[in-house]
Amino acid sequence: MAGAGAGADDDVMEVSCGGGDGRDPGAYAAVLKRRLDLYCAAVAKSMEAKSQEFSLGYRNSQASDTSQLISQASFDDAGDGGTLVTNSNIIDHEDFRGNPANSGTSKEQSDDDGDLEENTDPANTKKMRRMLSNRESARRSRKRKQAHLTDLESQVSKLTSENASLLKRLADMTQKYKDATLDNRNLTVDVETMRRKGALVVAICTMHCIKTKINVYISLYGQKAEKR
């Protein structure tokens, strides 16, 4: 049988029978059927495990269990003259070489199992590839999100620092504006005071000039009166 079992060496199963020593063919047929049932159970277990688990290590473990079951079948029936080579998965029974019908049936069953494994293994391979691709995509997505989050945190920290600096400058400018407003108010008051003082000085000067002129006119009038 040629099959596509992942991680296992159960690629070929060959059964050859012979009955040259006169032993009962029915008994040996029962022994062979028992071995075939064990092998089919092992293959079914391996296929069930592969359909449920997609981990490569687990599939290798199931393949190892399959080889152990096949080896157990060989050890259980060693007293009946049957031998099993698990490295190449060849079942050889020297006493059944004269029964080609049973050999053909076993090969057909094995070929059917192999075809079933070949039909299911590509699907499992696609599922595993899709699973690995999804995991890789998720990992890359998490990495991108983490990098984006780190970049955003860096930008937030930078903007927070700039905001604090701008708030400090705003507070300084506000204080300067208040001081300038107060100084402007004081200067306005001082200007108004100086204007009033200037007006008063002008008024005083005007009055002084008027008085001086009046005194001059009085003096001149007195001198004219004395001459007369």
Automatic annotation (TrEMBL):
Q: Which GO terms describe its molecular function?
A: DNA binding; DNA-binding transcription factor activity
Please provide one cellular component term from the Gene Ontology annotations of this protein.
Answer: nucleus
Coiled coil ranges: none
Q: Does the keyword Lipid metabolism apply?
A: no
Report the Pfam families cross-referenced here: bZIP_1
By its UniProt entry, which CDD domains does this protein fall under? bZIP_plant_GBF1
Q: What is this protein called?
A: BZIP domain-containing protein
